[in-house]
Fold this protein.
Amino acid sequence: MADQFDLIIRNAAIYDGTGAAPFAGDVAIRDDRIAAMGTVTGAGRAIDARGLAIAPGFIDVHSHDDFAVFIEPEMDFKVMQGVTTDVVGNCGLGAAPYAAAHAVFRAFHSDPKVPTWEGYRGYFEALDREPASLNVAVLAGHGSIRLSAMGNAKRAPSGDELAAMRGTTREAIEAGAVGLSTGLIYEPGRYARTEEIIELAREMAGTGAVYASHMRNEANQLLDSVHETIRIGAEAEVPVQISHHKASGQGNWGRVRDSLKLIEQARARGQDVTADQYPYTSGSTSLAAVLQIAASGGHGSEGELAGIGPEKILLASVPHHPGYEGRNLKQLALMLGLEPMGAARRIVEEEGNGAIAVFEVMDETDVRTVMSHPTTMIGSDGLPMGGKPHPRLYGCFPRVLGRYGRDLGLLKIEEAIHRMTGMPAGKFRLADRGVVRAGAFADLVVFDPATIIDTATYDDPRRYPKGIVHVFVNGTAVVSDGKHNGARPGRALRRG
Ligand SMILES: [Zn+2]
């Protein structure tokens, strides 16, 4: 008797996620798994994918969707890119302890109607009860943990405070978190010494959980910061992920060649060190954070915001002054009759952490150098918020495939796909994900390799990419013929 399948996707170019060259064939789905692949004989509804490619669903290793998965559970901005798994909790901003996490995330979700939860176990259970359209893997956030244990204290923790932080970290790892993140430019993470982070990261030794860091400095102290990050991994004996790897500020352009060498040297010593990247020359974060860096005498000359000219700072989300959105700080300063620094201060006084800006700080050559390196994965760093978010929120993955892969030939499509599927699934211990293979979960994206491209821009960021045809999450279609169907088959993914 012929095998019976729920769906057979026929005649696609199969990119299996390992980096191997594509081959023509069929992929059959039964329940939540890939049941067969290659030349599939069997019965079931079939769709013809001739001329299209099929790949494992993309894994966004660098997201900030901890609360968005409840507020906008269809997660259209991600699944319409082909993303089937989000790794949330980056840059020290985690989902628990709840009060501290909620206080931070309130800044970019103006009316966060979300369930409450107790600890990371509670967060996983909330995801189980209210699934999103995509899967969610979870990093614990050092900033949230520290804020909960000791407020915004600008000092090392006491013995009791450190014990509390270790307890929360252990709770997260035991609940299934894939690692611990830090944001060492932000409050309160910037007040943590290296030793504090080593102590916390040690809670993960032997578990496979990863230390992921938005490093202390991505500008003129980039190399010191990479050294610190690698040291934490070595002393705590845990794998390391360098977040959104870049050299920020024109005076530092080109330094990524040296920082990549540090990664190579650590790997040659046997350490597991990798990085992630979004494919743009602008970053995005809160204006308040950049003002704090400037105020603390951080990188940059006097009167400038951390070395960034005011014309290169674009206001993206200003909840109480939406009229400011889309204008740069130079224009706003003229409008307000203030110096750029004064204008930035006034906006932060009025908006707190809610004012998010886009900063043109990177060199395109550096972006390409980092992307060409075999240790770089793809992570959007998208900030789900109002106003005009950085276009990476909507366009990151198709941009890597279409622009950097197909159009510029910077890396082969199979290699680009590996960096967003099999490679992150291995690093973050997402079992049976990130690969097209019989028995693996049916997280799949069917796309047109000839047309795939991002269309989101800084002026008009809420635009879906072109070329994504079908997306399946745990065997269920979420995007069919380019349209989100509202299904929410995502799962909370526990490590391993
Ligand atoms: Zn970050």
The first strand starts at residue 7 and ends at 14. The chain has 16 helices and 20 strands. Residues 38 and 145 are 47 Å apart (CA to CA).
